[in-house]
Amino acid sequence: MTEALARGWLLAWIVFGAAPAGSLVLLLIHRITGGRWGEALAPCLRPAAALLPLVALGFLGVVVALPLLYPWAADPGTVKPDVASLYLNTALFAVRGAITLLGWSLLAGLVLAGRCTRLVAGLGLAFYGLTISLVPVDWILSLEPRFTSSAFGAGIALHQLLAALALAAVVSPSGLDAETAPDLANLLLATLLGVLYIGLMSYVVAWYGDLPPNAAYYLRREAGPYSGLIGAAVATGGLVPFLFLLVGAVRRSPGGLRLVGLLVLVGLVLRFCWLVVPAWGADADGAAVAAGLWLTGLVVVALLSLRLVARFGGRLGHA
């Protein structure tokens, strides 16, 4: 695998895995709290969560290509010796990722099989909270190991939830009508505000701290086309949907929410590109093109997988 293809695979895999992980979390939350929103969105959330084993399988491609992706895997001297020996090394990276993705896949299987009790759902959310604080640092932040952010895991968790809600809005399952659409609109609005808040506050904290590694991280993302990229991401996936969600007619309309969901998904893709691509410097263009091709292929495989699961495993849209 060439360097550009490996990097494109990582970016496509991160984008592809957001909605399935977020769908699982929403299903676990609904198992505890109940509510008509979960029943209305289940025909979309359940098939999306069923893709988590496919996301876990895709992690193998990341592990195989580690030296092509992460500087610490190619040269352990890029991080402190104690960090390299106790945390950021190939073996522990693979173990943390495998435990996380297999655990998420098991939880999805329990939910889809109707064997997820409230206790299991609560423990599952605790497991997700622990793992989501670790693996985003591994998969994304360690591309530039000198940069640190204590809120990064929480930010990625909100990105995953937002991706799942936006996908549900785009799909507009049959249970989404004028009565349940406002519930989805409220969830979208709250999650969207969370994403914008954490993104802004992370920047403010880094600016206020004025540490060279943190400054270098953001300076790389202000150079060349990246300032326009994040501007488009914030406008398309943040500000415009936010304004739409303040309009009562949009909040009550599945068609209006479909447009909001589409804008949010586009903004999320741009946001993930902004987080990942600048870390690769001059080789970013080839990686971005490869990511588009890989992501297209993953979507096709996902659609075929869902069709097979629906055919041989029953309809996922029902509890």
Automatic annotation (TrEMBL):
Keyword RNA-binding listed: no
Transmembrane segments: 6-29, 50-73, 93-112, 119-141, 147-172, 184-206, 226-247, 259-281, 287-310
Keywords from the named record: Membrane, Transmembrane, Transmembrane helix
The keyword Kinase belongs to this UniProt entry's keyword annotation: no
Protein name: Uncharacterized protein
Source organism of this protein record: Methylobacterium frigidaeris
